[in-house]
Amino acid sequence: MDSRGGRRYLYLADVSDFGGKKCMTESGQEKTENAAALHLEVDDAADSLSLPLMHGSLGPSVIDIRELYSRTGHFTYDPGFMSTASCESTITYIDGNDGVLLYRGYPIEQLADRGDFLETCFLLLYGELPKLSEADRFRQAVIRHTMLHEQLSYFYRGFRRDAHPMAIMVGVVGALSAFYHDSTDINDPEQRRIASIRLIAKMPTIAAQAYKFSIGQPFTYPRNDLGFVENFLHMTFAVPCEDYLVNPVLARALARVFILHADHEQNASTSTVRIAGSSGANPFACIAAGIACLWGPAHGGANEAVLNMLGEIRTVERIPGFIKRAKDKDDPFRLMGFGHRVYKNYDPRAAVLRRTCRDVLEQLDVNDEPLLKLAVELERIALEDEYFVERNLYPNVDFYSGIILRAMGFPSSMFTVLFAVARTVGWVAQWNEMIEDPLQKIGRPRQIYTGESKRDYVGMEHRN
Ligand code: CMC
Question: Measuring from atom 24 of ligand 1, which residue has the nearest CA?
Answer without folding.
Answer: 341
